[in-house]
Amino acid sequence: MLAEPGAALGYDLLSLMGPADPHDRPRGRIEVIAGGMFSGKSEELVRRLRRALIARQRIQVFKPVADDRDPPGVLVTRDNRELAAESVADSAELRRRLRDDVQVVGIDEAQFFDLELAELVTELADRGVRVIVAGLDQDYRRQPFGPMPAILALAEYVDKMHAVCVRCGGAAHYSQRIAGGREQIQVGDTGAYEARCRACYETYEPARPG
After folding, report:
1. Please, what is the Cα angle at 116 between 2 and 148, to 5 degrees?
2. Residues 31, 44, 109, 194: which is the catalytic one?
3. pLDDT, block means (10 residues), the chain with 210 residues
4. Could you confirm whether 109 is annotated as catalytic?
5. 3-class secondary structure for 156-169?
6. Beta bridge partners of 195
7. How far is CA 3 from the centre of its chain?
8. Cα separation, 90 vs 105, whole angstroms
9. Domains, the chain, ranges and CATH?
């Protein structure tokens, strides 16, 4: 299990206790949980958000409408953990739904959002909000995906998650497409993707009709 960002320095403990001086500014920051499919990104996001709830912090969780694998209104992990979440179409809608008193914002499947998400998470962190972003950093072609590259560059803390390669059992960082077309965004699961390591990754070519 991953340690909390900055755990070695006691950073999260201090943030949960709050600032020593009431006039101190809140400690906003951006945390990114990145990696390929099946690597446990959503599980880690939910773990951190639940800890924030235990600390009685005010949280909001968002996921993209484009990811329709689970019902709207809930974030569901592969190990069947659930957390209430708001489904939004883009970063503009996410901005409109933000509460003024929010302390922690969680965003799942961030790669499906528009590029303006990077600007929004920076604004939130500058306001003192802790922002936790989870998403694919690369698409099936191993190319940077959506707003994730910019958010990775802006983040104070980055955790790169790895799945298990279905071919060799090694650490897998790539989302190998095995069915479907060439479009970058193709929502799917085990029927369309596999976790692969660098040695086992293969360039995907869609099957020709007929």
Report:
1. 30
2. 109
3. 46 46 69 95 95 97 86 78 92 98 97 97 98 96 96 98 97 94 76 94 81
4. yes
5. CEEEEECEECCCCC
6. 175
7. 17
8. 15
9. 26-161 (3.40.50.300)
